[in-house]
Write a structure and sequence with these properties.
269 residues; alpha/beta; Nucleotidyltransferase, domain 5; 5-stranded mixed beta sheet; two-stranded antiparallel sheet; disordered N terminus
């Protein structure tokens, strides 16, 4: 018996594959360049100028050539591709997920994370030992308390998001986009943030209870938003800041998060 290696034949399956590939490409467009980089962007980015290229604008991928006769389908080069569509609507997206953290008292705690892919900004984070649909619905209201919810909400198919969560989402006017089952690569924005929180903070501390776990991610957010550079943001931080031009002034390391992380800046001699 031979295995069936044919492509999915349904439109929904193809759309799911295209969407997942587009999100993965948009989440890390400079992965190959970053692997070839000889210097760390967290050190190199804040100290050098960032080269920016002219942006043709959202309508560049959908602009049709001028025609004098009847309308016709745009050529393939002018049709919007999945990465282009996501680029145009990235300011209207948000991703959510929940990950578990074992405590020193043999309890399992859960962290709820909301990420805005536009500037790789962590919008909201909270901790609980007993996650429920009512609790997750309340987290949505706390993340966007002033009717500033995004148009689309990307999430997985976890059973934690029940009826109460759906009612809260609809009240905010947000449409949910579900990823395919067992496909974390379709959810790259929040997955990468969760990995960063684990590697750069939680793996270096001992968690005793909910209060301690709630304190660590919130301290990490300050360092992440103000000082952690991203290659996809052209070596800028989620909160944009002025770049220090090259000079003869000495470089000093400024500690953050209790000395666990540092940022480099030029200071007067």
């Amino acid at each position: 018996m031979t295995a069936d290696l044919s492509l999915p034949k349904t439109r929904n399956a193809l759309c799911s594959l295209h969407f997942g590939a587009a999100v993965s490409t948009l989440a890390d467009p400079c992965a190959r360049a970053r692997r070839r980089a000889a210097r760390r962007p967290s050190v190199h980015g804040p100290l050098t100028g960032r080269t920016r290229r002219a942006d043709p604008g959202p309508a560049a991928s959908t602009r049709r050539p001028a025609s004098s006769g009847a309308t016709s389908a745009p050529p393939a080069s002018h049709r919007p591709t999945p990465p282009g569509l996501l680029t145009n609507h990235i300011t209207q997206l948000a991703s959510i997920d929940v990950f578990s953290v074992p405590a020193a008292t043999f309890r399992v705690l859960f962290v709820f994370v909301v990420v805005s892919p536009d500037r790789r900004r962590i919008v909201h984070v909270n901790v609980t030992a007993h996650p429920t649909a009512v609790w997750t619905a309340q987290q949505l209201r706390e993340a966007w308390p002033w009717n500033a919810a995004p148009r689309f909400l990307i999430r997985d198919r976890d059973g934690l998001y029940g009826e109460a969560f759906g009612n809260a989402r609809r009240s905010l006017g947000t449409e949910e986009v579900l990823t395919a089952p067992r496909s974390p690569w379709q959810h790259p924005f929040v997955e990468r943030v969760i990995g960063s929180i684990r590697r750069e903070r939680l793996d270096h501390v001992i968690i005793w209870n909910e209060r301690a776990l709630r304190r660590h991610p919130r301290r990490y957010l300050i360092d992440d938003h103000q000082w952690r550079t991203h290659v996809s943001l052209d070596k800028d931080a989620p909160i944009a800041r002025a770049v220090q031009p090259p000079s003869d002034r000495p470089i000093a390391a400024v500690p953050h998060v209790g000395g666990l992380h540092h940022h480099d800046e030029r200071r007067a001699a």
